[in-house]
Specification:
The protein is mainly beta and 368 residues long. 8% of the residues lie in helices and 32% in strands. The strands form 4 sheets. The chain has a 16-stranded mixed β-sheet that branches. The longest helix has 9 residues.
């Protein structure tokens, strides 16, 4: 696939034996012979019914898993805390970012220029996290299904701020969280690409306002077969000439991210690597808060490509409303299960991505 992307008596009876035995006594006398009748007791055969051994029922107790990764719970307190969604900058001046490799889910959105990441922390946090930038109206529909997540952002214009405050997202902007949010400006980058915070601070400010997130995707069991087609990876050209690629790495069993031909590293020095990459093809409309700002339509349905376990599965995504998780189905209508682990979601316009088939290198396939 190299075209652009447009989901089981014997019965035993006792025998009665009657024997009459005539015994004659001799002596030459004329007295009559004495007849003795001997009756034997009937033999009785008892039928022993086989003993029925009760069937043994084995009950498998499900292992509790983290809702946003499907991996076993290690920290019970972490399992019930709210999610934090940090809006992280993807401008060249913002790289390398802090926290991408700690996230359970990352959404990559088109914005006015370049792209922006909605980075979802739940299993782990990141101290620091950033650089932080402004939110968009598209974040409301995208993130409401996380059950009152804590939105960590730099802030936004009055229209966006008003929309966020009226939504179910918990505003944790630099101004709303204030000094307790752990915000600071780094010295290694230039403003506005240098605002950071700490997830430890943001969770401490929750005060019960956030809720435990429900699962956003279905995960397959480790013994389940994986459908789809073998793949090298994919390439994307999103808004603002943002070019990125993902390449399957069998050694680590993850997809590795590149900016064009360069390794995309997190601030920890490690290449950004995820277990799944889900491509959501959606319509973008104009944001009611700013005519220059695109707004991803993430309620409804559309084409989806699921990259997992070194394969790509073509299918469909659907969400009935903004409280619904993602439903991913293949061409037969069967649910697509992801590899338990971390997931990166690309929210693209039609024809902004192309599959790189197995046997082809990234360089051999043109950018879409």
């Amino acid at each position: 696939m190299t075209t652009p992307m447009n989901t089981r008596r014997r019965s035993l009876f006792g025998t009665l034996i009657a024997a009459t035995i005539a015994v004659s006594c001799g002596g030459g006398s004329s007295e009559s012979a004495t007849t003795t009748t001997v009756t034997t007791t009937p033999e009785t055969t008892t039928t022993v019914e086989p003993t029925t051994v009760p069937e043994t029922t084995t009950t498998t107790i499900p292992v509790p898993v983290m809702p946003l990764t499907g991996l076993p719970v290690v920290d019970e307190a972490a399992a019930i805390r709210p999610a934090i969604v940090a809006k992280i900058d993807n401008h060249p001046g913002a790289r390398p970012q802090s926290g991408l490799n700690n996230a359970d889910i990352v959404y990559e959105e088109n914005v006015e220029k370049w792209t922006r990441f909605a980075v979802v922390f739940h299993t782990n946090g990141s101290d620091p996290v950033g650089p932080l930038r402004s939110g968009r109206t598209q974040d409301i529909d995208l993130l409401t299904s996380l059950n009152r997540p804590l939105l960590l952002w730099s802030g936004g214009n009055s229209s966006v701020t008003s929309a966020i405050n009226k939504s179910e997202l918990v505003n944790m902007s630099a101004s709303a969280a204030s000094n307790g949010g752990g915000f600071f400006r780094s010295s290694d980058k230039k403003a506005p690409h240098n605002l950071y915070s700490k997830t430890t601070n943001i969770w401490a400010l929750d005060a019960g306002r956030g809720g435990t997130p429900p699962p956003q995707f279905a995960y397959r069991a480790a013994t389940d077969a994986v459908g789809g087609t073998d793949v090298t990876g994919l390439k994307l050209t999103m808004d603002g000439s943002m070019r990125a690629a993902w390449q399957w790495d069998a050694a680590s069993a993850k997809f590795l991210r590149f900016h064009e031909s360069k390794v995309h590293s997190d601030a920890d020095g490690n290449q950004v690597a995820f277990d799944n990459v889900v491509v959501i093809v959606c319509e973008y409309k104009v944001s009611p808060a700013d005519p220059r700002s695109p707004e991803a339509q993430t309620v409804g349905s559309g084409v989806a490509w699921v990259f997992t376990a070194g394969k790509v599965i073509e299918g469909t995504w659907s969400r009935a409303d903004n409280h619904a998780p993602w439903t991913l189905t293949d061409s037969t209508g069967a649910a697509i299960g992801l590899t338990a682990g971390r997931t990166w979601v690309e929210l693209i316009r039609d024809e902004q991505a192309v599959v790189v088939p197995a046997g082809q290198t990234l360089d051999a396939i043109a950018w879409p």
